[in-house]
Amino acid sequence: MNYWKTWNEMEQLRREIDRIFDATLNRPWTTRWPLAFLPGQEARRYPRINIYDDAHTVYVEALAPGIDPQKLEVSLVNNVLTLSGEKTAVNGNIKPERIHRSERSAGRFVRTVELPTEVDVNQVEAEYKRGILLVKLPKSEKARPKAIEVKVASN
Asked: Lower CB density within 10 Å: C or N end of the chain?
């Protein structure tokens, strides 16, 4: 069985379940009560990302400080971008009973996002610099805007 296919299918199922709950519960309390303290909620949203585009390219910026770039993996399947990797603990030899507060997460992560438009898989570039992963995804030719000439009809 393909490991990444299984993860992608599980992530797709999770997104669908979240969409159903969001649509049926209409949860206004989520804006007043941040979910950062709930286990599992924020872990699914790591790394934090921005997605924007211009006429030719979709850009994904992922905030991922403290990650070894050699452990980052970027994949693209059916217009779904997957960012995965591992964030190592800063000081792993502290005994758990000595920890008073632990807000810096460590461990494996997978973040999957659907892109807003079709991209050219063969031209994708990824660069990690100063804790930010920038993925440049050129739009496919058919997804790029086309200028259409307007002809003036003569009477």
From this structure: C
Report the C-alpha dihedral over residues 112, 54, 119, 65, rounded to 10 degrees: -30
Q: Is-cis flag, bond preceding 47, omega within 30?
A: yes
Q: How confident is the model at residue 132 (pLDDT cuts 50, 70, 90)?
A: very high
Round the average pLDDT of the chain to a whole number and report it.
Answer: 81
45-141, CATH topology level = Immunoglobulin-like (2.60.40)
pTM: 0.64
Buried b / exposed e along 84-109 (16+ C-beta atoms within 10 A): bbebeeeeeeeeeeeeeeeeeeeeeb
